[in-house]
Amino acid sequence: MLSPLQKAKLLKQAPNSLGAFMLLNKFEQEHKKQMELMMAEFTKKSAEFVKEIETARNEILKTFDHIYKVKVGPQGNKGADSSVPGPIGPTGPQGPKGESIIGPRGLTGLQGPQGPKGESIIGLPGLPGLPGKDGSPDTPEQILAKLEKVKLPMDIVDGLRSALHALSRNIAELKGRKLQGGGGGGGMGNWITDNFSGDGVTVGFTLTSRVASSGTAIIVLIQGQVQEQTTHYSVSGNTLTFTTAPLSGAAIHAWYSRK
What we know:
Blueprint: H1 4-13, H2 18-70, H3 140-150, H4 154-179, E1 191-197, E2 204-206, H5 212-215, E3 218-222, E4 225-226, E5 233-236, E6 239-242, E7 251-257
Antiparallel strand pairs: 1-7, 2-6, 3-4, 3-7, 5-6
Helix pairs in contact: 3-4
């Protein structure tokens, strides 16, 4: 008959063995059968022993009853109970330490769900570039014609087309006012650049100076994309107001002639 510790060691040596499992099951069935036989025999012997004890007891009682009637006098008075308790017996020895049984290792758990996607951080806008050299004497239309011959991507050409058209409109308007005597929006000063960063909420930004030509001598870019005046933004004095708030972290550049 195997002990629990022997069973555990056998399972540890062959955890996936069907033969080991069947062998253990066979040992357990034999052990159960032997225990049932032993219990039946024990019950039988116990009944016989009790019967024998009962017979001997009756014989002893008869003997004592005879002796009591012949030689024993009357029973004396019951003595008084002692008020002093008896001494406490010594502490028994500590039992042996049991052996722990380590079960087989469990299966690996399922893989957990994928964590949430992290948010990207947009870097700060770069520093303004150095002042550019004098521009080409070509007109905006001539510049666009040259760019199209170079076969640049259409998104770059379209962005430059919008910027050059806006500059062409400003120059034409300024020439018209000069022919009329220079009234209205006033003269044009040096071109300056103001840089801002969007926060997704703010739509109004304060420029360093008032914009010349009644607020039209300005080019505005968000993340390098040219914005159309009246469609995407408006200018009043030195306040630049967008139709929709630029996204958080978006780089805003305003290039304009100060009044």
